[in-house]
Amino acid sequence: MEALSEAVHDRLQRFMDGELDDAEHARFAEEVAADAQLSQALEKLRAVRGLMQDDVAPHVAALDAEALFRRIDGELRTEVSSRPAAAVPTGGKVVQLRAWRVAAPVLAVAAIFGLVWLRQGDETVPVATVDDEGQAPAAKAAAESEGRPQVLEETSGALAALSLRTDVIKVDFGGHSGTVFTSGEGSEAEVTVVWVNEL
Amino acid sequence: MSASKLSEVRAGDAEQDDVALVNALKEGDRRAFRLLFDRYHRRVYAVALGVVRDPVEATDIAQDAFVKVHKNIDRFEGNSAFYTWLYRITMNLSIDRLRRKKVTLLSLDEHRTEAPEGAHPAPLNAALRGELGTQLNKALDGLPEHHRSVFVLREVEGLSYEDIAETLEIPKGTVMSRLFHARRKMQTALEPYLAAKVSTPAPQMSAEGGL
Question: What is the pTM of this model?
Fold first, then answer.
């Protein structure tokens, strides 16, 4: 008996699988009915399918669906309860991240403004105004009581030689203290001296 | 989803119902998940069993497949049928297991004693069945993974060529080619047993196959 060609075998398989169109299916059914070799080949194909189905079917019938669902449900519940909030793959994570993206810069800007404002508040403390003769009694007394160098008098004297009006300002900044002398008449002639002392 | 809508799902068109259930599940409806499980767990288990040939492994795969469905349902866009997506997940998990194991597959017959009495619809002679089971495992083991997956989806699940192509994301022509070669190999490997099978009255089967 001559073996079936691949083309015939292919057609036979599509016939068995119901993949031929109606007209072709009907034509081929007649061929199979009239040809013992085709008929036997078809039976063998069906037998392989039958073996597979017979092998699997009893196990499928015996499957405990409730037990399987309990396992699935248990695993899902365990995962939900043990999952960190940030790792939940939902829209919530996105919203959370967006909120931080807005809040972080706002907080940072607010903190910078707060620091600047606080520093400005402490920055300048007017101590005394030295007159044309270079006298600054309050500043001199403060320097003496704190044991700082007595530079105020000399500097003030030098400024006095210029016969200019001088403002003296005590400054505390970044762990240091200093004295700012500003002298002059209007905007035309100004001299500024900064003397920084260790606290 | 309301209770009345869920009861409609039980009675309506399968594919449309799947869409409704998937949408409900995306909204967090646990009953929808249970209905999808009820509808598909035996098929998922059968496909997994057809590939890995071990009931315990197949149960694990079915569990993993439904957990994956639940976790990734938001990624399912509905461009294909839900069941082809589910079969794809199942097949990928099954092939992964096969690759990891790389051991001789157990005969299904060793586990048959655990099945309840009368579970087999048309029991063959026990000795013949045991030998057949072993030979069937050997024959399947001789198939490349890509042939085995097509063969199982067609012969165990009865999927159409188009559904198999969609499930495995391959062209329909490739499905036909792989199925053709897989069947030829299976026939060759099982030839001595097929003669006996053919000579006995064949069980009633639909043209589309499937359980």
Answer: 0.62
